[in-house]
Design brief:
single chain, 157 residues, alpha+beta, Nonspecific Lipid-transfer Protein, Chain A, five-stranded mixed β-sheet, 17% strand, globular
Length: 157
């Protein structure tokens, strides 16, 4: 299904973008450093097995990708792939999706908010400004241009 493929691609760039930005953006770095070491955060695009998902680990050497079979400390599970697609492609903000009960959250909500703020900073870089303005309260002050984030993300730097 095309939505699943797009969600996989967006999750890839979200993870890689956050890895790049924890080096270049002090605000994102600060959000991640405020989270407990070893905290795992998962995003599942649907409760159905085989749906796109990702697990982030906030380790001592920065953000890393977790094992897909691990049960994360904090888990966002979207109620359907279509709802996840809307959030991941920037058609709807995570705050709006939360208000509409489009996903369930398991774990510490305070730590989840810190991670969501880091995700929003990343979205501010990955989406064009006219798009990001619709889903973010404010745009981040960019420390690196958007093409640089994509380039470094693709190269794995």
């Amino acid at each position: 299904m095309i939505k699943a493929l797009i969600c996989r691609v967006v999750l890839f760039f979200l993870y890689r973008g956050m890895r790049v930005l924890e080096v270049y953006d002090p605000q994102l770095r600060q959000e991640l450093q405020a989270l407990p070491q070893g905290l795992t955060f998962g995003i599942r695009t649907s409760p159905h097995p085989g749906s796109p998902c990702i697990t982030f680990v906030n380790g001592s050497k920065g953000l890393r990708k977790g094992k897909s079979w691990e049960i994360p400390h904090i888990l966002i599970t979207f109620k359907s792939l279509s709802l996840a697609f809307r959030v991941l492609t920037g058609l709807e903000s995570i705050a709006c999706a939360y208000a509409r009960h489009s996903f369930t959250l398991q774990g510490n909500i305070n730590a989840a908010m810190g991670f969501v703020r880091a995700m929003e900073i990343t979205e501010g870089y990955l989406f064009p400004a006219f798009w990001a303005k619709r889903i973010l309260k404010r745009l981040p002050e960019k420390q690196i241009p958007t093409p640089g984030v994509y380039l470094f993300a693709l190269l794995g730097l």
